[in-house]
Amino acid sequence: MAEHPCSEADCILVTCTAATDADYLRRVRKRYPHKLIVAGGAASTSPYSLGRYADMVCVGDGQRFLDALFTKGVDTAQELDNVWVHGEQRIVHVDQGFPWHMPPIQAEDGAVRLWCGRGCKNKCAFCQTGWAYTYSENPEPRILVDQARSLISAGTKIAYLSNDLAQHSFYKQLPPTAHGSYSVRFLAKHGLPPARQIRLGIEGVSERLRKLVNKPISHDDLIGCTKWLVDNGKSVRWFLIPGLPTETEDDWLELRDIVQEFKRTTTKGVLGLSFTAWRPAPATPLAPMPLQDDYWQWFCEFKTWFFAGRGWSNRVKIMSPQQPENRLSTAMADMGLTEAELRAGGSWGPNDRVQYPHKEAAKAAYDRLCKNR
To answer: 3-class DSSP state for residue 366?
Structure first.
């Protein structure tokens, strides 16, 4: 097959999964003076930073864009309403046209990913998935189930691509996998899941913070659900978001209490605490909230309490969050704001030129949060 080097191309298409890929685009732009077109997950939610080094950014699903590019040319594609061009002021929309018919994707870990849905029914205040996309699920669940069964029969590891498997109408038809993400509310309604390892996105380190971000999971419900799961042979991981706006030291003291209660009320099973530091993300109600670094001190004190004091247990595992420096650089790329602007809060940033599907609702939720602070 003849080679077609980038130096001979009319345009270069690049997929970006993170806004921090902007630095990579800068290097590509320096090397190749051709049309540089960007798409991918980061392009859909944070096009500003990527657009600084690209001729255009495809926001949302790219099927309509690719059709225009290949049949009518670059100029026509650039005029679409879901294309971001740096320096322009026109409103950009998030395109919704996911190619459900495409074959399953094998990831770097060897597992084959199967698309169950896009977006999310739940509107967690920190999460882009529910605000930057319109919820939709696979329109051909029968084909999806057949693919999953065939892959499993062939000895292939599979994973479902979904923000929450439990929200899909065809959930009960899906063959079980070794891992699964569930909500406490769903488990209370539908019973014990088939997965061996259960991931619970509980988010806030305290009941107050969980309520703040629209994940109202009570202390008692969380302990009760976790105990029920481990008593039935499941390993459980809590996904926690330190550094949420209004977080205090008292919230972290509550986390100590609940770890102690897990130890008192269970005699077997492993609980993982996986921390991912909050950072402002475009399209979400929390996006303009001030960025503070207090969480790192409180996490370090929690870790010291755990390893050097009464908190220790070989049935509890801790995974650390990002340090403030790394979180800051990612937040700056995501929001397109300076450190001073992020620390001050109050700005939606340049990505606000995108007309996210739930933009008005997100801003109304932000206003309510500000009133209740």
So the answer is: helix
